[in-house]
From TrEMBL:
The record marks K76 as: Lowers pKa of active site Tyr. This is NADP-dependent oxidoreductase domain-containing protein. Belongs to the aldo/keto reductase family. The lineage of its organism: Eukaryota, Fungi, Dikarya, Basidiomycota, Agaricomycotina. It comes from Galerina marginata (strain CBS 339.88). Substrate binds at H105.
Length: 267
């Protein structure tokens, strides 16, 4: 079974796994990588104004020949005089009439702006859903208290080694029906090999005959509803999608990964 969709607080649905076009792919022509991801089975494309990849997302969508309804697109505000103007510019670059999700990339980007501007973007149909990115707990609480339309998503840098720092945020978001979307979730394997989580990941993988990276993704999915991965390797993309089919982690396996993660990454 695929990862499927997650229902947002506005009634829309978001695919649980996304293909990201930031990080190592920023400022590069990722058209072919995106087309490969779509052919492999991804439907959720994550981009941002600051990534410099919106034009390639648009080209890939056009080249894929897929229906607009079959592709979910998220972009994020970086800078500009108004949220609406910059989103309209993004839509022109993407070759779209709307995005499925529009996020404020950083809390600092809200300075001299009002959340009502973002709410109007949703009301006018330029974005089906709205949200934020990189908001900590106090920042999200303050926004929720004044928002007429609550953010549907908070996209954060999240992996097992920083879980303890985000636990309260994740719990608050769940209580308020705000989806936490994780990026950087594979860092324990890609950036911190040889760390304390390697052993419980390997043990759980061995019991199932799968890969540690698939166990790590299963752990992420057990903690947050939506996550982003990326790769230029078709094999890796297939492995990421196949993580949806592995036997669910047991409570003791999740606890073992949690305990190992609390020790922190290797220095």
């Amino acid at each position: 079974m695929p990862f499927g969709n997650v229902k947002l607080n506005d009634g829309n649905k978001i695919p649980a796994i996304a293909f990201g076009t930031g990080s190592a792919l920023s400022k590069t022509d990722v058209t072919n990588s995106i087309i490969q991801a779509l052919k492999t089975g991804f439907s959720h494309l994550d981009t941002a104004q600051r990534y410099g990849t919106e034009r390639y997302v648009g080209a890939a969508i056009k080249g894929s020949k897929l229906s607009r309804a079959d592709i979910y697109v998220c972009t994020k505000y970086n800078t500009g005089p108004t949220f609406r103007q910059t989103l309209e510019e993004s839509l022109e670059i993407l070759g779209l009439t709307y995005v499925d999700l529009f996020l404020i990339h950083y809390p600092e980007r809200m300075e001299n702006h009002d959340w009502k501007e973002v709410e109007m973007i949703k009301q006018d149909g330029l974005a089906r859903s709205i949200g934020v990115s990189n908001y900590n707990l106090p920042q999200l609480q303050a926004l929720v208290e004044r928002a007429k339309i609550k953010p549907a998503v908070n996209q954060i840098f999240f992996h097992c080694y920083n879980y303890k720092n985000h636990k309260a945020l994740i719990e608050y978001a769940a209580r308020h029906n705000i989806i936490i979307e994780a990026y950087g979730c594979l860092d324990p394997i890609t950036k911190y090999p040889g760390g304390p989580v390697d052993a419980p990941l390997a043990a759980a993988a061995k019991r199932r005959g799968v890969l540690p990276v698939q166990i790590l993704l299963a752990w992420v999915k057990a903690k947050v509803p939506v996550f982003i991965t990326t790769s230029t390797s078709k094999q890796h993309l297939q492995e990421h999608l196949a993580a949806a089919d592995i036997r669910p982690l047991t409570g003791s396996e999740i606890a073992a990964i949690d305990a190992a993660s609390a020790r922190g990454p290797p220095s």
